[in-house]
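Standup notes
- DV: blocked on the single-chain target, sequence here:
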Amino acid sequence: MREPVERSDPDGVDFGWVMQTTFVCTILVGAPIVAALSIPVSLPTWGSRLSFAVRVGALVWIVVALSVFAYAKRSAD
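- DV (later): unblocked, structure below
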């Protein structure tokens, strides 16, 4: 019987796990943060709302991605 495709044995950091975990954590953490930070800000148009969400979301994404990578790097050693 062949080995399932989803199985892997990476040397060091498993970048697939890092990408999937970053995606999920960014949504779970980022959506409430963007919503909470948008409360005191005036966002009258859809363009301003989109711009705000992209700017805050990008910052959340980079923080989450670096944190997940650091965790994976520490766990791999």
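- Follow-up: The chain has a mean pLDDT of 90.
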